[in-house]
Amino acid sequence: MAERRIETGNTDMAMRTSAPESFLFRLKRSTALRSSMLLLVLAGVWLFFYFATNGIFVTPRNLVLLALQTSIVSLAAISAVMLIVTRNFDLSVGSAVAFVGVILAILTVKHDVNAAVAVLIAIAGGILMGAWQGFWVTRLGVSSFIVTLAGMLYFRGISMIATNGATVAPLPRSLTGFATGFLSPTLSISAVILALALYGALRFVEIRRAYALGVSGNVTREFIRALAPSMIAAIIALWIASWQGLPYLVLLVALCTFAAEFLMRRTRYGAQLYAIGGNPEAARLSGINLTRAIFWNFVIAGLGYGITGVALTARVSGAIGGSAGLFLELDAIAAAIIGGTSLSGGRGRILGALLGALLMGSLNNGMSLMNVPTFYQDTARGIILLLAVTIDQFSRRRSLGR
Amino acid sequence: MNENEKVQSAPGADCFSVEPMLVATGLTKQFPGVLALDNVDFSIAPGEIVALLGQNGAGKSTLIQIFAGAHASGSYDGTIKFNGKPFQPADIAEAEAVGVALVPQEVNIVPDMSVEENLTLNNEPLGWGIIDVRKRLLLAKKALVGFDIDVDPLVPMSSLDLATQQLIVIARALAKNARLLILDEPTAALTEHESILLFNRMRSLKKRGVAIIFVSHRLGEVFAISDRVVVMRDGRICGRHEIADTTRSDIVVEMIGRTESNIQRSFSPKPGAAALEVRDLNVLEFEGRKRVSALGLTVGKGEIVGLFGLLGAGCMEAALAIFGAWTGKREGMILIDGVQRAIKGPDDAVAMGLGLMAQDRRDCLIGDQSISDNIRIASLDKTVRYGMLDIAENRRMAREQLDALQIKADSIDTEVRTLSGGNQQKVQIARWLAANTRILIMVDPTRGVDVGARREIKRVWLELSTKGHAILLASTDAEELVDSCDRVIVMRQGQQVGELSGLDLTEKNLLRMATDG
Q1: Is B399 in contact with A214 (Cβ distance < 8 A)?
Q2: How many helices (H) and strands (E) does chain B have?
Q3: What is the three-class DSSP state of B250?
Q4: pLDDT tens per residue across span A341-365
Q5: What is the SS3 assignment for A355?
Q6: Distance from the B17 Cα atom to the nearest Cα atom in chain A, whole angstroms
Q7: Which residues of A touch B374 (CB under 8 A)?
Q8: Which residues contact B277 (CB under 8 A, 6 or more apart)?
Q9: Chain Cα centroid distance, residue B289
Q10: What is the rounded distance in angstroms from the CA atom of residue B17 to the CA atom of residue A215?
Q11: Is the Cβ of A26 closer than 8 Å to some Cβ of chain B?
């Protein structure tokens, strides 16, 4: 009887598909809508801080600061998304980043190695760390949670051993200059416009081809729809850049984001990663080599360690083996989750994670401006994370249906 | 032999009572879209062994699940009486408390726990709220001795062979004072020798007055052990016989539901050159248990070759192994278009032009992703343009397949999860067509698919064969194979036992060949 009742319940619902139900349904299902919901929340938070801080929050000066404060978490969040999409975890980011920093600092400070060479070696070190963890996960079949938990411990340990617990500083000017410097306003504005133009061209070519193959409607309308969000982002970037240009570090984040988004959304490899996360068995039976794909996933994460480690070390002008990047892995995972990456894999956008990082950064920055103690800041971030994950769970019912 | 059984069973039934133990009348169970049981009457007396027979989907499982309490009382129509009292279990625990226990086909044990822990699982004797370890050991020993199993109760379950595990699972059911024991294909995973051990135990239970419902596909066993046979088809009971009064071929005819249908696949041209050839295929589990031995087969271009066997016969394992998807060991030679190829994994197979539709479509589809994403994943290599994924081409491909296979969905962006079973299967076919697959291996492709969609899917593969695709169809559905295949290779317990084609290819012959044990 019970089953029959449920059955009729469904048909009833289907028959009177009214607007609110279908809207709610779409709200629950659509990733696009979720990221725009995140944008709405972010806008609300900014509006709140705008009034609470007498407009100080939304000034180019503070937004530049906010972007700089968010940059390290954003860099780490990029590889966090790529790993979580394939149902893998990385708990070692913070320690690995500290280790990269130690390599960079020892080379430049103690051995006077040329900065560019030292950066390359440090990044290569990061890649090796990623490959090392990837080897354990894919070849020896140890779960990534354990492998990276171990990595979190021994990368931190090695960093401390190598520096004997002391801070290695100061880094050469050329490196700190990069982390604190700005690209001139003229060049920044040109860069923003160039990036927009490149992106526009890419989308235009794509939409034209889709139209030619009969899978897209009106080219102009599709083009405007595709470009509108990036136009708005560009306008904000231009406004900020007009103050004293854009920080190199923020440009680096933008470049990495673009590259990672491209890899995930526009290459065969990215499509494979989403398929693996969506259903590993289905991916395997469709001829995707899981071992290879996930190994490279960790190598790319290693490249992330390298870049993030160099950026962080340069930003604080030295390597602190014990505390550099502490809890970075948790912030990165939180940013990814708030940004819509699903813990059960197969879904997640790099851009969403950046918005997630920006939201958490905004809360910190805004509350600091309001002189709210840091304890409250952590509490607020915790609650946001909890809400984000809850929404994530409600938005999905796993199973193929009957 | 039959005479002996008869002699044994008659006094047994008299000894205990003439009153039946369980009487079900007018059982009707409706699932969404399917009438699983249609006005079924069934009864069994103490000390009686009744074999329940029927093809897949005949309603056997539903019937025994109702008895075992897996479908709550009230979710079906009809009445059941157990020992004269109304029997309305809300769940499995209630049914067990009254004395009805189902031992499912899959041996469900906790491998890392000891025998005694498994025996008392969820039924642990408590003292002061914690498990009374001494009492547990006693209970376990009693259960083992009572069922005449000579095993140390402290060894881990995983150290025992499958047959012993099966016996222990039955002992666990009996330990809960089961008066009616339901065994769902208990021999599917057992060797002949192991089966005989099980039958000896069943006979001793019978002497103790336990009633046993025994579901099996192996007719040889059925005739060796049961007192009566009940044959089901399409949710109804279509035959009840004393075992002495019937023959195997009568029962096969009843299971199929018609005397004979010699409707052959309409076209039967000479097959093209061999697209897929398999020689001396051995499939083993990691522990060394052989699932398939020395299988050899050839599928020509444009040919549909069936691989028929009952559950556990090795067809599914063979199909997976050819595709490189078997997780255990594999030996043998595979030739694609006459050239020997090393297929180490599914990625190699796909690169050689093979495609697989696995038995459980949840293993093959990404439910939370769109139709388009599901279709493209086997052909990502072929749609790269200037180093980038050609997303427009992916979408065009998906739309083309959506139209060609008439997949019913709002758009190619619809999540596969929301589609019906038949349409999900079509998405799988679409994936391989988009990837230009020449050799398709399908395992039970129409399982859980309604009749209408089933016909459409059949039409699709018949069409594919006329276009020169080679199709290997591993199935437990005899009717489907007779309708579609040029030839069918029959397997039994991992061995290739014969091949049927032309006028010999009938359901009756298939079933007879697959069941003769």
Answers
A1: yes
A2: 17, 24
A3: helix
A4: 888 889 899 999 999 999 999 999 9
A5: helix
A6: 35
A7: 282
A8: B297, B298, B299, B334, B335, B336, B338
A9: 19
A10: 74
A11: no
Tokens of A173: 């000017």
Q: What is the pLDDT of residue A32?
A: 54
Whether cis (ω within 30° of 0) applies to the bond prior to A170 is yes
Higher pLDDT residue, B17 or A264?
A: A264
Cα–Cα distance between B406 and A253 in angstroms, integer? 46
- Kindly list the distances between the CA atom of residue B344 and the CA atoms of A229, A287, B104, in Å, as whole numbers in the listed order: 46, 11, 34
Q: What is the pLDDT of residue B269?
A: 60
Residue B19 in tokens: 């009153």
Q: Which of B75, B390, B424 sits opposite A3 (nearest CB)?
A: B75
The CA distance from A217 to B391, in Å, is: 15
How many Å apart are CA A305 and CA A98, to the nearest integer?
9
Kindly give the parts of chain B with pLDDT less than 70: 1-18, 32-33, 56, 189, 191-192, 258-270, 448, 450-452, 517
CB atoms within 10 A of CB B503: 9
B368·A281 Cβ contact <8 A: no
The sign of the CA dihedral A124, A125, A127, A128 is positive
pLDDT band at A283 (very low <50, low <70, confident <90, very high): very high
Exposure letters B457-471 (e unless 16+ CB within 10 A, then b): beebbbebbeeebbb
Smallest Cβ distance to A210: which of B373, B374, B392? B392
Q: For residues B49 and B182, what is the distance between their CA atoms, to the nearest angstrom?
A: 10
Q: What pLDDT is attached to residue B33?
A: 63
CB B353 within 8 A of CB B378: no
Q: Each residue of A183-227: pLDDT tens digit?
A: 999 999 999 999 999 999 999 999 999 999 988 878 888 888 888
User: Per the structure block, which two tokens stand in for A55?
Assistant: 């407009």
